[in-house]
Amino acid sequence: MSWSNPVPAVGIVCLKGHDVLLVRRGTAPRQGEWSLPGGRIEPGERAVDAALRELREETSVQAEVIGLVDVVDGLFAEMDRHYVLIDYVAIWTSGVPAAGDDAAEAEFFGLELAMQMVGWSETRRVIQKAAEMRDNRQSLRRC
């Protein structure tokens, strides 16, 4: 197998109350699967700016980033692709989900249902960690 150079990309866990915004991927990799909004970082673009841009392009939703969740290696042997995925957590601020760009669908789902819908274990782990970060942030605000 001959791997391509790693591609820097972003994902964003957008939370609205106890709901998570998912997109059904319209292109490879993982075409047809439910996942997080995200995509490639453009040359000269900051990673966090790329995450917010991808969120707007794929879902028409606006959000405020509250933190970095994790950096994940997406190794897709069937495409000889290696993505370095920088995942952020954000809180929804406005917009109604509408699929755009390379997303076939976009919708908020309750956390439990979202976890069942997402096929890749790394994405489920990132969503869970993002929800915990949000909960910890809310606990700190109450102190």
UniProtKB/TrEMBL annotation:
Keywords: Hydrolase. SUPFAM superfamilies: Nudix (SSF55811). It comes from the Bacteria. The keyword RNA-binding does not apply. Its EC number is 3.6.1.55. Residues 5-132 form the Nudix hydrolase domain. GO terms for molecular function: 8-oxo-7,8-dihydrodeoxyguanosine triphosphate pyrophosphatase activity. This is 8-oxo-dGTP diphosphatase. It comes from Brevundimonas variabilis.
